[in-house]
Amino acid sequence: MTPNPLPIPCLEKVPEVYDDDHEQPEGPATIGKTLETLREDGSTVKQNLALLRDWIAKHPHIRRCRTDARFLLRFLRAKKHSFLAASQTLERYLAARTLHPSWFQRLDIRDPELADLADIGFLYALKERDADGCLMALCDWGLLDPKRYTVDHSNRMHALWLEAYGEDVLAQCAGAVVIFDMQHVQLAHHSVVSLSVLRQVAHYVNNAVPIRCKALHAVNVPAGALWIVNGMLGFLNEKIRNRCSLSRDYDELAEKIDRSLLPKEHGGKEPKTEHMRAFRERCERYRDRMLALDAMEIDLNHNEPYSRHAMLDDIEGGAVGSFRKLELD
């Protein structure tokens, strides 16, 4: 049964009436502490939404953008209600969508390529959250057929997942945890991965993702794929690097996460197919809203830090930073 689609939000910079509808986070016993960490209360939300909307209205380069509370709270919560950090992330988010259309445009679960990757279980959200309410996702990266797909397809699937849950209030507040199962990575996958590609992906993750990244776990990593994991780590910022871990297998991963949340095939309660089905239903329900994001516009032909030249120059000229290298014993 196809879920009922949600209405498409307004993209006008200055709508006649701002959409203030949004949910209050609830559920986990730790939600009070989470909101304290985010520095969020009713007056802060109201004040920062007004500031961000006024900033969008006066922004010389933003042409079309969502201004509803559900959308803007993604950025404010990701940056603990720092108006400056949230506005900078929004600029770079809009810029990234423009610079990388092969990653962010047409996030449609009915697209044949995305539908195929969803059907084989390349990436899907887990049905249940952890004790703090974090959104959980599992990516079996080796299922990406290197003869048919590129890293762009992987990035599109991750963008689809992020946007499908972008308005989820618990995900906004508690953040997300991603598990990368590398068991099926083969030598042929090296043909679609390069340090340049990893640098581009990390630049987006570091600067333009409106979500709190709580942890990144790599599991079942063959020795030949360690360079991919460590290469990516080298380009991530220190805060995210410190939240990365490597596990030999799911038994070792279970020491770091609640195993019952995983698919039954990995020691959890429900089979993988049930998690995949729920993910597809979510993508279908939010399909029209995700496709509407393609109509947002920002001018990148200027000299600001989020300009076309500045962002691409940063990507191409960035150096590998120091990092905590992950090794197999």
From TrEMBL:
Any one GO CC term of the record: membrane
GO molecular function, a single term: phosphatidylinositol bisphosphate binding
Residue ranges annotated for the CRAL-TRIO domain, each copy included: 110-274
Signal peptide (UniProt feature, chain positions): none
Pfam families for this protein: CRAL_TRIO
Highest taxon listed in the record's lineage: Eukaryota
PANTHER family registered for this protein in UniProt: ALPHA-TOCOPHEROL TRANSFER PROTEIN-RELATED, LD40136P
Name of protein: CRAL-TRIO domain-containing protein
Species per Swiss-Prot/TrEMBL record: Anopheles melas
